[in-house]
């Protein structure tokens, strides 16, 4: 079987699935996701319902802030399907 794709994403873990999601949001339609295992095979569905956005490094703090912004957007788009909350931890 020969397939043509604009983009090929290798690995259907959380990073691969996220990449495909965001590429599709940009309007890219011809994406192939390659993985011999089912998607998210090694990804836990058990959340600790916590995250942190304090990091001594400004680079890591900016990265985490952006990640939280993306989670906020997904929560709004999905009627908070994954139950994001702001409890965090200390």
Give me a quick take on this structure.
The chain is of the alpha+beta class. It is built from two helices and two strands; from the N terminus they run βαβα. It has helices at about 15-25, 60-75; strands at about 5-10, 30-35.
For this entry, give a set of tags.
90 residues; alpha+beta; two-stranded parallel sheet
Total helical elements: 2
Can you give the mean pLDDT? Answer: 83
Helix content: 25-40%
Quick one: overall form? elongated
Strand order of the largest sheet: 1-2
Task: Classify the secondary structure makeup into a structural class.
Answer: alpha+beta
Number of strands: 2
Largest sheet geometry: 2 strands, parallel
Beta-strand portion reads: 5-15%
SSE pattern, N- to C-terminal: EHEH
Report low-confidence residues grouped into runs of 5 or more: none
Q: Indicate the radius of gyration in whole angstroms.
A: 16 Å
Distance, first to last CA: 53 Å
Write up this protein.
- With 90 residues, the chain is of the alpha+beta class.
- The protein has two helices and two strands.
- A two-stranded parallel ribbon has the order 1-2.
- β1, α1 and β2 form a beta-alpha-beta unit.
- The chain is elongated, with a radius of gyration of 16 Å.
- The mean pLDDT is 83.
Indicate the topology.
Elements lengths: L6 E4 L3 H12 L5 E4 L23 H20 L13
Parallel strand pairs: 1-2
